[in-house]
Structure formats: structure tokens, C-alpha cells
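so my prof wants the structure for this chain in the C-alpha cells format not the other one, which i didnt know existed until like an hour ago. anyway here's the sequence
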Amino acid sequence: MLAAVPALGLGETAREPGGAARLACRAGWWGEHVGTVRSTDLRHTPVVDLVDGWDDLWAAPERTDELWTAVPRLRVPLLAVGGLHDPFAADTVRLAREWGGPSRLVLGPWGHELDAPAPGAALAGRRIGELYVAWARALADLRGSKEFLAVSPDSNGWRRSAAGGAAAGGVAAELEVVRAGFTADPENPFRSLPLGARLAAAPPNLPTATGSAALLLSPPLRAGEVRGGVSVTLTAVADVPDADWVVRLSLDGTHLAHAVHRRAHTPGEPATFTVDLPPIGRAVPDSGRLAFEVAGHHWPRHARNPHTGEDPVRATALLPSRRTVLRADARIPWHPGGADTVPAAALPEEVAS
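here's what i got, hopefully its the right format
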């Protein structure tokens, strides 16, 4: 089985693993392939009325239970290929992790198109199809179900570690809360940025001084690489019964990853919860500090939470929310620089075997 940038159900394409509704990419895709776009104003409410025929998408379950129940029972070999800039990177990792048979996971510096925009850029001049062919030819040599995560944090080669990242070489750290309080206002939402985009300034002067996000910093890290998914555990307070918690990760002013976690709250009471970010691959300089912005919206990439408990795609009344981050801890998949290097030119054969 070869699965490239997989999203394995209608509900999985519509919502993040944390429950937030994807907006901009879904409006574009459905408008191009399925229904007529009624409005290009992504502030329009209810969201479900933006595109003809959207009821089926937003009514779909967030998890296809029948499929995910079957995945651990499958025994055929799997090659799961994803992109670090692909919206479904976390789905790719999850598929490889839960697969019942032998599996290999490969993540590269691509988006949903994999290496189509820049042929061979991450594979020493080869096309990704050569990786598929090499893996298929090596199937007879696969043993067991050990998984590898091969990501490319720089142009010097690929790295190997356990799938999921943090279990091998990870560090636990309490984050410094530089700015604790913010207002999540749907009329002035925290704006989303493309992965890899430059922020207006490097930390601690990130472009959120208007109060639309909290700011957290990791302790200084040793020179090395962050490889895999970062997890952030927040203890925080919201004054509404339902809230989205956005965590955007950056290093030296470059946006590396983001995740959105939706949860119910008892207004005014502290709650502790974990936000799992999708995998990244990035070299970290000595004393480098990861920056985490914590916000309540991530628009227009995601629909704005109305803070009432109503489904964000069907809500018409949107209320502001005041938030405070009391404490934050992170699990960071840090690895020594260059550890487990696989030369870029040898990638297809090495990963296949």
C-alpha cells in the first residue's frame, strides 16, 4: 500500500484533528471541483452558506471509525509519504503509526503537491516516484513493523528517528510566559499565515502586541534539530463555554507549524489540555528559542469559533472571549545535529531497506 498525502475521510478533510473547521482551503477546493461559490467573503455567516452543496461536508463525522478500527488489523506493507507543509501531515503520521503491518513513513519539505513545484529538490535531483519504485522493489526485505520518520531539516541530507518524533531524543521544558492575556475577537481575528512565511519580527517582538495572542518562549536549546511533532500542554482560563486554542510555532521569525484544539470550558475556571502540532524538520542554532503564539482564532485558514458552543460553520452570532495562559509546558523532539544522517543521494535505497 502506498499512501501519499492522505486524508482518509470526508470529515478529516473538513476539520483539523483538534476539531477546528478548515475554511479557506475547503472553500477554494469545493468551489473549484464541486459546488458554486455563493460568496467570496470568508467572514460571511453562516459558513455553510458560502458554497452550494456544503451540508454533506460539514455533517460528515470528524473521524471515520470503521476505517480507523480496521487500520491496525491490516498486514500488507505500507509506505506513507507526506509533506511538512501539507494540511494532512498529521494524518500521514497517524496512518503510519497505527498501521498493523510493516510500515515506513517519509516526510519531506513539500506541500500537498509533493515535489511537483520543484522536481527533485529534496531528493538529490531525483523525482519522488523513484522512491516509490525503490520501496516496491525492496518489499521482500521488509522486517517487522518498525517505523521511521525521515525529514529534511536542511539541504545536507535526511534524518531518521522514531515516528512521532518526541519519543526519541525529545526534551520536556516549561515555557516562559512572556505575555499571558489576550482577547479572541471574531471581528478582529488572529490572522493565519502560510507555513514558511516570515513573521513581522522575531521573538520576543512578534506581531501580536495588539493583544490578539499570548506569547510563550522555550528555554534556549543546544545546537541540533527539531524533528517530529511538538506538543504543548496549557493551563489556561477562558470566559466562554466553548473555545478554540491556536498554537503557532516559529523559530527566528519563520512560521514552522500550527494546530488548533477545540474544547468546552467552565467559564472562569482553569483547564489543562494538550495541543499536538504536526511534524516539522528544522535545524536549531545554539541557544535558539522556539516561540509559541497562543490565540483563539486562526482566520481565514479556519472558521471563527463563535464561543457559544454552536458549530462554527453554522453559527451566526460570534462573541469575543478573554483568555489567560497560566502555565505552559512543551515536549520538543530535539535531536543532536546531524544524528542518524542519511545522505540525500541515497534516500530511496536507504528508506526502502
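also thought this was worth mentioning. Residues 2-19+62-165+342-352 form one domain.
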